[in-house]
């Protein structure tokens, strides 16, 4: 290659290495190939050259022109690629990081149901899947509450079909189905939503959760009931909790009791949760009424049983220090999320 072309070429290559953007690249090309560019000047000067020189210089100059065009295209592509990479790097987002997405949370009632079910399954209870629409027979007659019985008025009922179907007012509506489908001895726990046509206030809802437990076997007594409930409460609150039984009336148990437990927050000294009494009202329970056992096909000469039922909403309120039950059924996510990990 002609020495002057070679010198243009090497300075062009050196200069190109320093070029890092399209504007400088265009300028670089213009300085070589533009009207007043170095190579153009050489091509223009060809007319004064000897024919021999004209042929070699012309050929070399043209070769360099194509080379410069090629270098230009290659560099332009490199600059473009670098721009894309920088953009990608700047805008890259780790979608798996999910910093800006709120973490999921279980509903406080679900958390309490899960814990209560864990406790009972550890004690060997089977979980029974209840129904929310039940027959009048299941809800009332089968648990010793005949049509004329005043106890029907104790729970204001939503009728689905008058005289036939109701929204279950109590998980006790499952007792008869359980008795008919299990052979003693057995122990079953039933968590479910129940419904009562009641005025709603801070401690009453018309839709709430109950947990029913029934245990049937030989020589089942109130002592077994006491042990079961104390064990469950100890597991739930992580400390010793005592219970006391007061006489209580429920048509499906005899004797019937109301069970309170010692306040796990103040240990009897009196606090806001137990309303300074040291005790928290918890559940209805008792030994299963012979009529209920017989209606379920259980041999009452051989077997006895106990049953209990408690409100899960009230337990969740105690556990989380909530003073208004209505937040459970309202859909205020801000209120519900705060209990997620307690
Ligand atoms: C019953 O429902 C009986 N079936 C419990 C039972 C089962 C007794 C087995 C004996 C043997 P009671 O109506 O008291 O009983 O309701 C039980 C619990 O449900 C109450 O202690 C309370 O915690 C909860 N509860 C009752 N009414 C409401 C309401 N309107 N809102 C929220 N919780 C309620």
Produce a short descriptive summary.
This protein is of the alpha+beta class. The chain is 41% helix and 19% strand. Residues 155, 170, 172, 196, 198, 204-205, 208, 210, 212, 250, 252-253, 283-286, 307-311, 313-314 line the site of adenosine-5'-[phenylalaninyl-phosphate].
Residue stretches low in confidence (pLDDT < 50, at least 5 long) are none
Q: Biggest sheet, open or closed, and with what strands and sense?
A: 7 strands, mixed
How are the strands of the largest sheet arranged?
A: 1-5-6-10-9-8-7
Mean pLDDT: 90
Helix content: 40-55%
Structural class: alpha+beta
Q: Please count the beta strands (DSSP E, at least 2 residues each).
A: 10
Radius of gyration: 43 Å
Spatial separation of the terminal alpha carbons: 83 Å
What compounds sit in this structure? Answer: adenosine-5'-[phenylalaninyl-phosphate]
Number of helices: 11
Helix-strand sequence: HHHHHEEHEEHEEHEEEHEHH
Strand content: 15-25%
Which overall shape is indicated by the principal axes computed on the Cα atoms? rod-shaped
């Amino acid at each position: 290659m002609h020495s002057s072309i070679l010198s243009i070429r090497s300075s062009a290559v050196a200069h190109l290495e320093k070029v890092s953007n399209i504007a400088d690249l265009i300028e670089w090309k213009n300085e070589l190939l533009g009207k007043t560019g170095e190579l153009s000047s050489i091509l223009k000067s060809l007319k004064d050259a000897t024919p021999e020189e004209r042929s070699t210089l012309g050929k070399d100059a043209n070769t360099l022109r194509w080379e410069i065009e090629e270098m230009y295209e290659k560099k332009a592509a490199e600059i473009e690629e670098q721009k894309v990479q920088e953009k990608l790097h700047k805008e890259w987002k780790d979608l798996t990081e999910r910093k800006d997405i709120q973490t999921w949370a279980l509903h406080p009632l679900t958390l309490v149901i899960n814990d209560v079910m864990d406790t009972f399954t550890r004690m060997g209870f089977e979980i029974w899947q209840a129904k929310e629409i039940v027959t009048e027979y299941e809800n009332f007659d089968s648990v010793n509450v005949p049509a004329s019985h005043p106890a029907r008025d104790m729970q204001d009922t939503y009728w689905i079909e008058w005289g036939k179907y109701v929204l279950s007012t109590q998980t006790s509506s499952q007792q008869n189905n359980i008795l008919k489908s299990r052979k003693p001895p057995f122990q079953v726990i039933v968590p479910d939503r129940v419904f009562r046509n009641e005025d709603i206030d801070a401690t009453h809802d018309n839709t709430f959760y109950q947990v029913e437990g029934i245990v049937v076997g030989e020589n089942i007594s109130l002592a077994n009931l006491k042990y079961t409930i104390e064990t469950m409460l100890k597991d739930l609150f992580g400390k010793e909790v005592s219970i006391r039984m007061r006489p209580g009336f429920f048509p499906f148990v005899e004797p019937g009791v109301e069970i309170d437990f010692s306040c796990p927050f103040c240990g009897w000294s009196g606090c806001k949760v137990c309303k300074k009494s040291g005790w928290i009202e918890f559940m209805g329970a008792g030994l299963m009424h012979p009529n209920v056992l017989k209606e379920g096909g259980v041999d009452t000469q051989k077997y006895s049983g106990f049953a209990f039922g408690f409100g899960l909403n009230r337990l969740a309120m105690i556990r989380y220090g909530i003073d208004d039950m209505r937040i459970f059924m309202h859909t205020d996510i801000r209120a519900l999320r705060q209990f997620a990990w307690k």
